[in-house]
Each structure stands twice: as structure tokens, then as C-alpha cells.
Automatic annotation (TrEMBL):
Domain Radical SAM core positions: 25-204
Name of protein: 7-carboxy-7-deazaguanine synthase
Record pathway: Purine metabolism; 7-cyano-7-deazaguanine biosynthesis
Cofactor(s) this protein requires: S-adenosyl-L-methionine; Mg(2+); [4Fe-4S] cluster
Classification via Pfam families: Radical_SAM (PF04055)
PANTHER family found in the cross-reference section: 7-CARBOXY-7-DEAZAGUANINE SYNTHASE
Quaternary structure and partners: Homodimer.
Record gene name: queE
Length: 204
């Protein structure tokens, strides 16, 4: 039986070419690499299929990079699951070697690894972020279901650089969360509303 080398392979849920649906880079041509594995356990998670790494194939990093290069993306977005459950050093090294711009979407719940041009930090109350994330953040995005999430958002905002862009995103299934986010942004001009345009457009 062939042994898989976990330094050269990563468990992958899917890869796809689309546009970034949210945040500062919304609408930009992007190649997505969705890694398997997450131990955060958000009850409203829309990618629960990603949680168990054993359900997904180990793909060679070299093949992921080749696939990304073929799509000529403006950015490559590493997402999950929780990508920082894995050492991302080799994946980002090889992507950058090809001249690609590399972004990360993470809850920050595991030690930081890899070399990124942009880091979207979405901290979750269900598993506290690791201290190593705070100095890496480019934008902060907090999902809001109820008012405790607004306090959580401010708690995390206090730990990132002052120039980090701050977003609040209403939890998709909870109707009252939209009003909560709207009112908070109207009352606090340093925050922005995050809209998931890919869900509105019905694309990935
Ligand atoms: S951190 Fe992301 S992938 Fe993990 S449970 Fe929460 S929403 Fe789902």
C-alpha cells in the first residue's frame, strides 16, 4: 500500500474557480482551495462536510498548485474547514513561487503558518483564537447571531491593528441578526456590513 506523505499532501474538500463573494476583495477572480478538517463546531456552519478530514482525499500540493496556475486567478484563497489545522508553509511557498497572490480565511483557532498576502480573520466564540493570529490580520469578519457576538467582535477588534478593516456579517438563517448588524454599523462608523454576494447570486 502506498504511504501518503503528509508534508507534501493536504486533505481537500474541493477546489473551484469563482469570484470572492465577500469582504474587501469581493468580486475578484479567485481560485479556492477548501481544506478539510475543523474542530471549532459552529452550530450554523454551512460547510459541516469539511469537518472530518478522513472523508476527503489527500491531494499532492504540487497538483493543487498546477490546478491553480491553469485558471490564471487574481488570487488564490485558502479556506476550509479550518485551514490552520494544517501546516500551510509548503502550500503557500509553492503558490508564491508561481507568482500567485495568496489569501487565507481562518478562525485563527490554531497556530499560524504559511506566507499570505491577505488574511481574513473570523474568530468564533466556540473555540478561542490562538495568540499568533492577531499580528497577521488584514480584515476582521465576525458572524453575528445575537448581541453576545457584538461584544465578541469588539473584544477581537481591540487585539488587531488599528488599520484592519472590520466587518459584521449577519448569520444567514437568523432573521433578527440582520437588524442587529445594520443598527450596530449605523451606531459604530468603524464597522462595515459584510454581504455574502455569492449566496445572493446563487454561485459558489
Ligand atoms: S470555523 Fe468555519 S468551518 Fe469550522 S465550524 Fe465554524 S464556520 Fe464551520
Amino acid at each position: 500500500m502506498t504511504q501518503i506523505n503528509y508534508l507534501t499532501h493536504l486533505p481537500i474538500v474541493e477546489t473551484f474557480h469563482s469570484v470572492q463573494g465577500e469582504g474587501t476583495w469581493m468580486g475578484v477572480n479567485a481560485f479556492f482551495i477548501r481544506l478539510a478538517g475543523c474542530d471549532v463546531g459552529c452550530p450554523w456552519c454551512d460547510t459541516k462536510i469539511s469537518w472530518n478530514t478522513k472523508r476527503h482525499p489527500q491531494i499532492a500540493i504540487m497538483d493543487l498548485v498546477t490546478e491553480a496556475v491553469k485558471t490564471h486567478p487574481a488570487i488564490v484563497i485558502i479556506t476550509g474547514g479550518e485551514p490552520l489545522m494544517h501546516d500551510l508553509t509548503e502550500l503557500t511557498r509553492q503558490l508564491k513561487e508561481q507568482g500567485l497572490r495568496v489569501h487565507l480565511e481562518t478562525s485563527g483557532s490554531h497556530p499560524f503558518s504559511g506566507d499570505f498576502d491577505w488574511v481574513t480573520f473570523s474568530p468564533k466564540q466556540f473555540k478561542a483564537p490562538h495568540d499568533s493570529i492577531y499580528q497577521q490580520v488584514s480584515e476582521l469578519k465576525v458572524v453575528v447571531k445575537d448581541s453576545s457576538d457584538l461584544a465578541w467582535a469588539e473584544q477581537n477588534a481591540a487585539r488587531v491593528s488599528a488599520n484592519v478593516v472590520k466587518y459584521l456579517q449577519a448569520e444567514w438563517e437568523t432573521k433578527s441578526s440582520k437588524d442587529l448588524v445594520m443598527q450596530y454599523v449605523l451606531d459604530h462608523a468603524d464597522w462595515r456590513v459584510s454581504v455574502q454576494t455569492h449566496k445572493l447570486l446563487g454561485v459558489r
